[in-house]
Fold:
Amino acid sequence: MAKSFIAMYFAIMHATTLTTSTTPANYHIVYSRRRSLAIVVSNGQVTVRAPLGCNIKHIQQLVSDKQHWITRHLQRQQTVTPLLVWQQRGTILFKGKPLPVTFSRGSKSDVNFTAAGLDICVSRRVQDVAITGWQNTLLARWLLEQATAHFTEPLQAWSKIMAVSYHEIKFGQWRRRWGYCDNNGVIGLNWQLVMAPEWVSDYVIVHELAHRLFMDHSSAFWQVVSHYIPNYPQAQAWLSFYQPQLLSRQ
Structure:
């Protein structure tokens, strides 16, 4: 058991070099209980995820076959300007518009929304090293409250317009989706949508309600969406463009 654990440890930490047409790049191999090989390029790092016991020659062949793809993604990431977290920007998006954010210390932790913007107050009892975490928590809590108050009415209105019903609405935070609709009629919305313009959040609401008619993304489904939101491709483009900023709050 000890030997296999040690062998697995060194396998996971295994690193080698990929020579591309432009520059050599190190890549790491991570073994796990998976069924297929995959290459992940993130933050300038190349990682090959492989099944336990996978032949190293198969991994090398995959990396060789994907040289151009890897190089392209590495170069693309080098040209991307790192996003500032919202504390550094001093603003967040709220209903599609920049909202100034200030920070203060007080007797209790709270969020105050005024004509001048948003003030996030962290209790003086909180240690300095924990302030950023508290600011994140307070902002998330405030945005969830705003989403809960803001989206219930539009969902009900669009439900009547589209002549479809739903069971209930739930809010969550997901990194890879803005909403969902399940077979029980539950509509889920990412509360971070409250940071988007109304015409964008309307698209997500209509998208999920359209699943009450078609639980797929067939042509019939998109015909329903386009009937109510003709400019839905622009809404999709907005979400794709601003998604990193909406999610870069940590």
